[in-house]
UniProtKB/TrEMBL annotation, chain A:
Species of provenance: Marinobacterium alkalitolerans
Protein name: Branched-chain amino acid ABC transporter permease
Residue ranges of the TM segments: 6-25, 32-57, 77-96, 103-123, 150-167, 238-263, 275-295
InterPro entries associated with the record: ABC_transp_permease, LivM-like
UniProt entry tagged with the keyword Kinase: no
This protein's UniProt keywords: Cell membrane, Membrane, Transmembrane, Transmembrane helix
TrEMBL record, chain B:
Signal peptide limits: 1-23
Family: Belongs to the leucine-binding protein family.
Annotated keywords: Signal
Domain Leucine-binding protein residues, every copy: 29-365
Record-given protein name: ABC transporter substrate-binding protein
UniProt cross-references to PANTHER family, sorted A to Z: LEUCINE-SPECIFIC-BINDING PROTEIN (PTHR30483), PERIPLASMIC BINDING PROTEIN OF ABC TRANSPORTER FOR NATURAL AMINO ACIDS (PTHR30483:SF6)
TrEMBL record, chain C:
Record keyword Transport present: yes
Chain ranges passing through the membrane: 12-35, 67-87, 99-118, 149-168, 189-220, 232-254, 266-285
Pfam families: BPD_transp_2
Membrane topology label: Multi-pass membrane protein
Family affiliation: Belongs to the binding-protein-dependent transport system permease family. LivHM subfamily.
Subcellular localization: Cell inner membrane
Keywords: Amino-acid transport, Cell membrane, Membrane, Transmembrane, Transmembrane helix, Transport
Species, as recorded: Marinobacterium alkalitolerans
Source species taxonomy: Bacteria, Pseudomonadati, Pseudomonadota, Gammaproteobacteria, Oceanospirillales
Protein known as: Branched-chain amino acid ABC transporter permease
Chief localisation class: membrane
Amino acid sequence: MKINKFYVVMLLLALVAPFVLYPVFLAKLLCFALFACAFNLMLGYVGLLSFGHAAFLGTGGYITGWLMMNSGLTPEIAILLGTAAAGVLGAIYGKLSVKREGIYFAMVTLALSQLVFFIYLQAPFTGGEDGMQGVPRGNLFGLIDLSDNLNMYYFVLAIFLFGFWLIHRTIHSPFGQVLKAIRENEPRAVSLGYNVNDYKWVAFTISAALAGLAGSTKTLVFQLASLTDVHWHMSGEVVLMTLVGGVGTIFGPVVGAGVIVTMQNYLSGGELGNYIHIIMGFIFVVCVLAFRSGIVGEFQKVWKRNFG
Amino acid sequence: MKMMKKTLLAASVAAFASTGAMAEISDGKVKIGVLADMGGVYADICGQGCVTATQMAVEDFGGTVLGAPIEIVSADDQLKPDVGSAIVRKWVENEQVDAVGGMVSSAVTGAATKVTTDAKKIALISTSASNAFTTKQCSPYNVHWTYNVVALAKGTVKPMVEAGKKKWFFITADYAFGHALEGVATKVIEENGGEVVGAARAPLGTTDFSSYILQAQSSGADVVALANAGNDTVNSLKAASEFGLTQMMDVAGLLVFTPNAQAMDPNVAGGMRTTTGFYWDLDEKTREWSKRFMERHGSIPAMGHAGAYSMTMHYLKAIEAAGTDDSDAVIRKMKEMKPDDFFSRNATLRNDGRMVHDMYYVEIKKPDERRDDNDIFKVVSTIPGDQAYAPMLPECDFK
Amino acid sequence: MATFLGINLFGLFGQLLVGLINGSFYALLSLGLAIIFGLLKIINFAQGAMYMLGAFAAWLALNYLGINYWAALVVVPLVVGLVGVLMERFLIRPIANEDHLYSLLLTFGFALMLQGLFTHMYGSSGLSYSIPEALSGGTKLPFMYLPDYRAWIICASVVVCGLTWWMIEKTKLGAYLRAGTENPQLMQAFGINVPLIVTLTFGFGVALAGLAGVMAAPIYSVTPDMGSNLLIVVFAIVVIGGMGSIGGAILTGLGMGVIEGLTKYFYPEASNTVIFLVMVIVLLLKPAGLFGKEA
């Protein structure tokens, strides 16, 4: 009951936010929140650190952007196909990487995403360094004009809620329980007869598809897909968001994305623009040394200690 | 939602109606955003210098126009189209910016001008080279001032092909600008009976050009054309000299900005010819302005700096003449009025947004010809604007 | 132009040479990574930043202290190694008992900070460092012009890598090292200061990156992101070679440089991707890497 009230308040806040804050900024925040949630599905619930999730973000973005520019499809279809493309890529990469663990998994995913980066750099359809520019936002279902920033925001909010709900469902399903069992004690899960690699592989694919969904949506918001989204710095950023917010908590990535995107928004363009990487690196170091459970995780600890 | 917007609009109209002289200036001020590369390979040709030049124009204009203050904001695009376009979007949608100036990398400018055009704001392009902004991607709100790739190719390539250098190899910056320059230059070469024997595409900001230089070396070309800019040109020339390429073939820098020419080894770069839209040491007027710029900025102006100043001045004069900062009225006035200052010689701003003015074919001085570090170019000839630029496309004739 | 079976030898040899030079840097960096990994079981994500630090240190030493290239070759690795020692002692050791992923993230954050700091101070456009006078010439070979400095890099890298390999695999010092990692408790019982060995080895691995940085300064311009771009390639090389294999790191580093060079000649569009493609193939056929032992 308490949780439900919390959700309702959050939703109301999200609905009125664009009247106070710049809608494009809010939409960007939601895209990254979804991206971080998708990433957290792997790190937080399977215990595998993927250092290559930018590949899926970028793939979703490029495919959706290309379809919007060349196919005449409506945005919701283009987003679906972009998401599917990222999912397929995720399935392939998952096959190659889930057999590895820990650091090996991180490095393999990183190297695979770099392969994708260079392919997009060379492929003519992405526009290379210029990026894919001037992607039309189109009309949702052929009816609602998304070039209006408010309409766009509510569409992004709907997508985010869908993605968030899906992750929530996945975690709390029997499938999610097996994932957690694998995270906690993999040999035991194996001895119970679960095909661990298959579970990891499916989780990886879902995570990749949702990262692609975030990328597809982001491309529509900014009307541009670029190499930044596929660069490994982006993979690092999403790790940071999740770490800051709280690994393995359902709300952590949202909070973390909020903190990082807000910080970037106010620092970029300003006098402090130069400091952004220094600050991000510093947060990384501090989080790892002292706050490994992140904002939400630490909050939960304090809550439990005092009220639980 | 609609209701709210209308109320806001009514409120703002009422607010500004009462301020009298500023009635025609939206939000009570004229705000110019300067988008530049503050720390990257183009920082010397349009970074803080572009901000300084724009500031000088605002100060020389008097700091206010039609009674309203003129404000400048600036940002670092990091040479990334996504970063640049997001900044410009924030400026025009949320921060009441009326015109966006600066603009270096053509990739960023391409993305940024899409946003300004959608928002009906004026783009004052000072340092980008691609000709797309007044052709393929032309827009009624684009103003392209200093130079473009057509002027570079016609100015530098044509005389060399005519002098018998027939086989060309390109080392090209791998993005909008490099592709445009290579494309235009190839056309000029082929029209004049030459041929292109190969091209190597190097990413923006490449630090080791050796493998591209080796490709050029084994191509059997007469001339290796550097279709890049900024530090890329400096670094590729350095590699060319290290591998002995400069002794085997001619090297042509298609776009050499003065700060970059300063950074090159004069023994290697001396005698190389290129085309520029401005040089600080042309006459009394250019020296006077450049001296003031130098005092503020610490080094001699590149052509984009002078262009940014000249263009901002013209924009502000047009606001004054139009009596409003409404983009449509201002751009019409900008095109009606003839730009004429130390930078713009025999100049007109065409309906496609291309500012056509005299260009200069220059030679980089050899070490023994230089008075001091700032004595870089000698002018070989002046190219009249109508010969330097391509004619206007009918579909870009925005009246 | 000399050709053989339709291949332009001038071009081919040139690209092979450039590949071998890149390979020299790959080898030095992946060797450093392999040493650190072998001992601490962590991936030092800051290895690229240390390489960058080495190049900047060389530049700063020359421009502010008048320390020339040759002196920098000795001084800079010591300084960078010291940074590594401090980093291990005060950042990595406190979390040594946590999941190794945390140390990877920590070094990643540290690298980000260093890179941001240098970007803030020197911009991203690059500083130039001249080739030392003694090596500024070149030699005309039958098929190509070989700048002396490039030849020096290959020789120096091979010698340094070889010596390091010999030291770790063949000397008593190396034996202590290997024993200390396999069974730290036992070594401790024998009165050997294992934490000190760990710290010094980390410092040594990092110093190798610093050395590579000094060597790179004259040919690549000195930029804050020079290390981060290289590091990902080095990671792929480590995966290909097999983690923890010292010899594997050296051979794969040089080999991949050559493969890259060949690709640059025959199909330049794929030159950036080829190493990652090799990695995928190796992963499919030999998941533990070419020289790695199956875990």
